[in-house]
Amino acid sequence: MSLNMSRSGASKLQGRLRRAKRVAVLTGAGVSAESGVPTFRGTDGLWRQYRAEDLATPEAFRRDPKLVWEWYDWRRQLIAKCQPNPAHQAIAALERDAPEFLLITQNVDGLHRKAGSVRLVELHGNLWHVRCVRDERTMENFDVPLRQIPPRCECGAPLRPEVVWFGEALPAEALRQAFDAAESCEVFLVVGTSAVVQPAASLPMIARGHGAYVVEVNLEPTPLTSIAHESHYGKAGEILPRLLGFPSGRPGSDNFEFRNSNFAISPPDPHR
Ligand code: OAD
Fold first, then answer.
1. Class of the 38-81+126-163 domain?
2. Does residue 222's CB lie within 6 angstroms of at least one atom of ligand 1?
3. What tens digit of pLDDT does each residue of 185-212 get?
């Protein structure tokens, strides 16, 4: 793996992080790619194989809830087998050292929480949460595979995945926190997003406009590259631990010491 700096020479990120009181991170599907979760727009991306109109809109759910749930059930089965990778772990470690921190994720897979992230907002919802279509009650559901499709609420009405579909509003409180963080942070890190879906894609621009140091990690240039102070191209699971100053090694393994002069953390508690 080579770490490419697009313009900046040596990375200033660690120095900036040491001084920063407020740090924000935005992630997309790329951060989970090395865990085995498919992205949306890459060569094997979900939106290359399936039509979002058939599976990820309120109209699609009204038309054919069984089809929509079969697709989500397949994704849940796939994701249930996936574990957080070193990129998730590095972000969780960063949080533990930052006085004020917000992780803003577009991912619905729950892997950030599994890695130990706590201060996070899930802008597009969570695949492991469901909502009653009648009384709007939300609850966790970890059945893999689902016992019945569509799954049903105690009241008898169908449940839907608690995710944001095309044409739907994002959760208001999560959005408010995300914008607040973008406007007030000193460092804004963007990892593994194609930055084409709004409003998430505008957050790094807002951060930059408010004076944040913006650093991007992706396999390739994105629309954000032109506004980022640093862009690092390659796999997030390889780049991020080094970029943040962690020693090489696999977080979570018995002999791994996730510790250096800037960051001192303990392994994530799986029950958090
Ligand atoms: P995309 O699939 O659009 O983009 C994934 C990005 O991750 C691309 O820019 C890849 O280059 C990059 N990438 C892939 N593997 C990587 C790796 N190992 N390390 C670093 N980068 C890598 O996914 P998102 O940007 O998350 O919304 O898509 C945003 C939203 O569009 C999703 O949340 C979803 C989708 O429609 C909804 O479902 C509402």
1. alpha beta
2. yes
3. 999 999 999 999 999 999 999 999 999 9
